Amino acid sequence: MTETSDSRAHEHRVAHVQLREPAPRGRARVHWPNRAGVSRAPALVVYFAAAAPLTDDDERLVGRLVDGLDAVVLAVSAAHAVEAHATVAWAADHAGELGAAPDRLALVGHGPGAALAERVAELAVDEGWPPLRHVALVWPHDDPEDALARLAHALAEAPSGRAR
Fold first, then answer.
1. CATH says 2-156 is which class?
2. How far, in Å, CA of 17 to CA of 1, rounded?
3. pLDDT tens-digit profile of 124-148?
């Protein structure tokens, strides 16, 4: 992992991570909240458009998730469901090492990434792993505030073992 300070987004700690195949290589970053002593932070995997640099809207969304939910966010541009599923599996395996609570794992799909998040959630349910707390789909025509409010509510509740 290579840690950097990302001046385009909100001020928080960022590390570029190199995931093993079949996860997307070189297209993932971990973002941590600034608040010292945050315990049991949610672990969010956020999918964006494949092979495209993050837009300003993407960066704002990541910043809102990190700062607003005190979440550890793995932001990734996955090209297909196999890459996306490998990414969430990696996040589930390494959540504790990243300072996040493994039982507070959720997916967020933004724009084209919403279809990937939806498919990965189906695979997780079919396979029984990893357990997801919530799946937030932010389609281009949706108000992201509504999806993020439902996400915050789901992360505050006791785990149910299935994605909502």
1. alpha beta
2. 5
3. 999 998 999 999 999 888 888 888 8
- Whether the pLDDT of residue 164 is over 60: the answer is no
**Nearest Cα residue to 150 out of 133, 128, 130:** 133
Buried b (16+ CB within 10 A) or exposed e, 49-88: bbeeebeeebbebbbbbbbebbbbbbbbbbeebbbbbbbb
State the DSSP string of 17-53.
Answer: E-PPTTSPTT-EEEEE-SSTT--SEEEEEEEE-TTSP
Average pLDDT of the residues in 62-81: 92
Give the start-to-end residue ranges of the domains of the chain: 2-156
Over residues 54-70, the mean pLDDT reads 88
The whole-angstrom separation of Cα 43 and Cα 53 is 22
